Amino acid sequence: MFLKEIKSPDDLKKIPQNELPQLCEEIRSELISTVSNTGGHLASNLGVVELTVALHSVFNSPDDTLIFDVGHQSYVHKMLTGRYDKFSTLRKADGLSGFMNPNESIHDPFISGHSSTSLSSGFGIAKANSMLGKEDRVICVIGDGALTGGLAYEALNNIGRSNENMIIILNDNKMSISKNVGAMAKYLSDVRTRSSYINTKRSVKIKLNKVPIIGRPLSRMIEKSKQALKNVVLKQNMFEALGFYYLGPVDGHDIFKMIDVLKSAKEIKNKPIVVHAVTTKGKGYDFAESSPESYHGVSSFNCEEGVQSISYGYSEAFGDAICELAEKNDKICAITAAMTDGTGLSKFAEMYPDRFFDVGIAEQHAVTFAAGLASKGMVPVFAVYSSFLQRAFDQIIHDCSIIKQHVVFCVDRAGIVGRDGATHNGLFDAAFLSEIPDVSIFAPSNYSELKEMLNITVNERDGVCAIRYPRSVEPENSVNNFNGAPYFIKNLTSSKIIVTYGNLFNLADKSDCSVCKLNELKIDDALVSELSKFDEIYFFEEGIETGGIGQILASKMLKAGYKGKYHLTAINEFVTHNEIDVLLKKYLLDTDSMNRIVSEE
Questions:
Q1: Coil, helix or strand for 237?
Q2: Which one of 17, 227, 322, 400 has the fewest CB atoms closer than 10 angstroms to its CB?
Q3: Annotation says 541 is catalytic
Q4: Helix/strand/coil percent split, the chain, to 5
Q5: What is the pTM of this model?
Q6: Domain boundaries of the chain, sorted by first residue
Q7: Cα–Cα distance between 469 and 386 in angstroms, integer?
Q8: What is the per-residue pLDDT across 218-251, written as a single tens digit (0 to 9) for each?
């Protein structure tokens, strides 16, 4: 077995090239076996096996910098950079991260958990290399899905007019998480499928190779001939028009072709390069190849049976609720940023295709696009993960809130998400949304409340509204405590009261003291007056402490002259990957911790 002997990329280079296909098969087997146990991103990693092996065969990490965009496709890279022995700990407590992480290895030069960042960070590293007099290469692996993000285009515009030793590997698998959409997807499809170009190029290359090559003048003439051929057949190559040297398309699963094209790219100096590799997401595992969306991010599963049906959670409850509302209100539109399945919008997309918009991995555009829809009387509902909504903070303020556009944000994965870790926890949305004037923020504790709150935000409220809900299922026997009021207080007999919202209410509700559930994250005079009747207030928040709802309430209570005890339990750091229950206990947000804190104070 080759993998056990690879402690660094140098060991990989000792393997005879004709035996690399066997190594690739070993890697695929290990990917399926491990991810079926730990959960994680399977299909994307199966698709980059040969590509990653070729990269480490040709380049010299960490001197040469390798950055995998949306680092969920970096599992193979981890195996080849001294982490195979720990690969079974993937996404477990104190184990390997599911993304690139500089704290984990010198071979991970930059953190990557969100899309479209590799080109900008890579260009910064390449520019720093130049300033330091280094000729090391910077290689960024970016999927075609990540090229739907605006940040990638900003970087391409900047890089194309430079002379840095930078290579962009375009991993073209026709997928992001959901199927790719937009003009870029169509353009890449044209590049891949124009057999007239590919066949003509091959024919001309054979004829040119028969011409004796005499010095650089003829070499330049040959290169110009190839370029002219591309321009005639393809009319124009976007990457070349931007200033890149373009190589491809090449079969990303042919390890030998990949090594050859990467060696060619390595020889080109002082000009940014795009290597266009065509791959298959889920390659080598029939279940994943036939349904790459289902195998993008998976929980543990049986390798022989494949991924089983997903449990019904908040995302699915939201999806059903918005379909019911859309049946009665033809102005409701649903927007996703390449997360149709993940946000529960698949059913809506089928039922109301003319009112469904997948804008690609482009959250900033999604928000302003929604504002445009709202300006003409439509009711846009943008379903988005909390950690991804962070990317569009300015658009929420500038394009939606200032002029009070009626846009509804359904903020999925709010709070601690578990094994995806620091880059994906939704700890900041309550804090940053509550900073914005006149934003209505709701926090359901079960599916029934989510349905009612969605109806209110869509049909009754004006301006910007948000509903935040966790990555989980509702607890058994959960009771709907929402009657349209901004808060609900249970058990008025105790002089101590716990204040919380959302998922934590289900844990606080098991305590013996009074509990105040914030249905709406709104601290008004009526709430302050009601809470002032209690001698001790304990606020528990599954979010960041600084600027969070707990601090806002503390400030309001202080201004109102409250003389009792106020105790806030919230989060003050980036939360690493682990099971959700374990993390709630660690941060004293579980029922036992709540009871202990209240009884000890």
A1: coil
A2: 17
A3: no
A4: 45, 15, 40
A5: 0.88
A6: 3-190+242-288, 314-416+435-446+460-468, 487-600
A7: 9
A8: 555 655 555 555 555 545 578 999 999 999 899 9
